[in-house]
Amino acid sequence: MLNRKGVPPAVRSRARYFLGKVWYQRGYLDQAAEMLEVAGEAGLTPEMEIERRMLPRRRCLYQGKYAEAIRTLENWHGPPTWQAYAQFNLGIALVRSGAPR
Fold first, then answer.
1. Residues 71-87: what's their mean pLDDT?
2. Radius of gyration (Cα) for the chain, nearest Å?
3. pLDDT of 6 over the 70 cut
4. Backbone conformation region of residue 23, classed left if phi is above 0, alpha if psi is from -120 to 50, else beta
5. Contact (CB, 8 A) for 46 and 27
6. What DSSP line would sit under the chain, residue for residue?
7. What DSSP string describes 25-53?
8. How confident is the model at residue 73 (pLDDT cuts 50, 70, 90)?
9. What is the mean pLDDT of residues 1-27?
10. CB count, 10 Å around CB of 60?
11. Total-model pTM
């Protein structure tokens, strides 16, 4: 099924995913998070989908939004490698927020 501009939804999702990653890598964190949010799951591999979900959480760390990072990382679910990565980032957020240990 094509959208009104003639681009299949899976192609549009992948393009938004890669654009979001590029913006993230260049430091445009808000734009990256917005693009990754609208990318959706259509056409993304499972690994891409997990990274799409993780990048906005990492943005919270870079922007000093530790409470938001803690809230979103505490309930993270994913493959073991990404679970460990989420726990590591959660630890960083807890330390930087000054949360009691």
1. 91
2. 15
3. yes
4. alpha
5. no
6. ---TTS--HHHHHHHHHHHHHHHHHTT-HHHHHHHHHHH-STT--HHHHHHHHHHHHHHHHHTT-HHHHHHHHHT----HHHHHHHHHHHHHHHHHHT---
7. HTT-HHHHHHHHHHH-STT--HHHHHHHH
8. very high
9. 86
10. 21
11. 0.78
**11 or 5: which leads in pLDDT:** 11
Query: The tokens of 7 are what?
Result: 């681009």
CA distance linking residue 50 with residue 15, whole number of Å = 16
Which amino acid would we find at residue 70? I
User: What is the band of 27 on the pLDDT scale with cuts at 50, 70, 90?
Assistant: very high
CB 91 within 8 A of CB 100: no
Is 20 exposed, middle or buried, given 0-12, 13-18 or 19+ CB atoms closer than 10 A?
A: buried
